[in-house]
Design brief:
Blueprint: H1 15-18, E1 29-36, E2 39-49, E3 58-67, H2 77-89, H3 95-108, H4 143-151, H5 155-163, E4 167-171, H6 177-188, E5 205-209, H7 215-219, E6 224-228, E7 242-245, E8 248-251, H8 264-286, H9 294-317, E9 323-324, H10 326-331, H11 340-350, E10 355-356
Length: 364
């Protein structure tokens, strides 16, 4: 149940299920990003044992905030963590929360006329080195390096699905906070900064944490990235295209099966990404005042890769013969054979008019 809120007239239906992940009773604390209508939310959860039969031996609460953008929510995480602990130890005292709301409400208010039509933050038509969403993880390693470490070469599979704007659902048992960051990282794979690209494809929406209460919403979405702790979603195949169970990426669509295979071009991209990360670590050690972060490197690596692909496709589509060859594919950093299916899906998804003349390999 929602125990207390400000302002009191805001529609918070279902927010009690979004701010406390299913299965959270098994863990001591967590944080959770979610979406509520046009707003993004961040809630901190804590679980405290109590000697009370009425509360069945445990008191569990979440304290959260809603904002029209998720990018700066992390700044308030420390406050929310302290407040949820305070609410567990001294229930019913809301003065700190009321003061926080009075101080921040100008920042969090959507303003007149903006309603639910806020543009998604990820798919900006142009992206500057430091303009992408600023959302650093709470431990020093950084969320991008955790993402790379967790998925390894499979981030190239996720990259292709993200670029094709597929519905991607990531399953993991609680804690869900780190999984919300995987949603964010996945979205960072598909940035494109070329004008005229992306107008024909659906918006890809970061939904962060979802549960069974979100099923109706997800049924009408054509593209999203989300995470859940509820295993029941795996059976509801009509809701997703790609299902990620921990490190296992899978799809039930036959035509997407070829995209699950890592090819030689993927391995080369992964090698280059790691090489650049090592160079960054070395430069940070050598030059103390030079400190670009790994998030920058990660976002720019995929942004440049995506721009190279679309630049080539646009050039070919405006040429006389509109013919895309194996040489073009290699120039885009793709495997002419291994990425043939991905290229065909990409041309269809973005409505690019070129003719693919990369033959299928002959079967022995």
């Amino acid at each position: 149940m929602v125990e207390w809120c400000l302002p009191q007239d805001i529609d918070l239906e279902g927010v009690e299920f979004k701010s406390m992940a299913s299965g959270s009773h098994k863990i001591q604390s967590d944080f959770i990003y979610f979406r509520k209508g046009p707003f993004f939310g961040l809630a901190c959860f804590a679980n405290m044992p109590v000697e009370s039969e009425l509360e069945r031996g445990a008191r569990m609460k979440s304290v959260g905030i809603l904002s029209p953008s998720y990018t700066l929510l992390y700044r308030h995480m420390h406050f929310l963590e302290n407040q949820v602990r305070h609410q567990l130890e001294t229930p019913g005292h809301y003065s700190h929360l009321a003061a926080f709301y009075e101080d921040k409400k100008g920042v969090l208010h959507t303003g007149p006329g903006r309603g639910g039509s806020l543009p998604p933050v990820y798919w900006l038509p142009s992206i500057h080195r430091y303009m992408y969403p600023e959302m650093k993880i709470t431990h020093p390693a950084g969320c991008m390096s955790q993402f790379i470490k967790f998925f390894g070469e499979q981030i190239l599979i996720l990259w292709k699905f993200a670029l094709l704007r597929k519905r991607i659902l990531i399953f993991s048992p609680p804690p869900v906070g780190v999984v919300c960051y995987r949603v964010y990282c996945c979205c960072c794979l598909a940035n494109v900064s070329l004008p005229g690209i992306g107008g024909t494809v659906p918006e890809s929406k970061p939904f962060f944490y979802v549960n069974v209460a979100d099923i109706e919403t997800l049924e009408v979405e054509v593209s999203y990235v989300a995470c859940t702790t509820e295993k029941i979603f795996e059976e509801k195949r009509e809701l997703y295209d790609v299902y990620v169970d921990n490190q296992n990426v899978k799809t039930h669509h036959d035509h997407l099966q070829p995209l699950l295979k890592i090819n030689s071009a993927d391995r080369e991209k992964y090698r280059r990404l790691n090489e650049q990360r090592q160079m960054l670590l070395y430069s940070q050690e050598v030059e103390e005042d030079y400190n670009p972060c790994e998030e920058d490197l990660f976002v720019l690596f995929f942004l440049e890769q995506n721009n190279r692909i679309f630049q080539t496709l646009l050039e070919v589509s405006s040429s006389q013969d509109k013919t895309l060859t194996a040489e073009h594919a290699r120039g885009m950093g793709l495997d002419p054979q291994g990425d043939r299916s991905f290229l065909m899906d990409l041309l269809e998804a973005y409505g690019i008019d070129v003719m693919l003349v990369i033959d299928n390999p002959c079967c022995p």
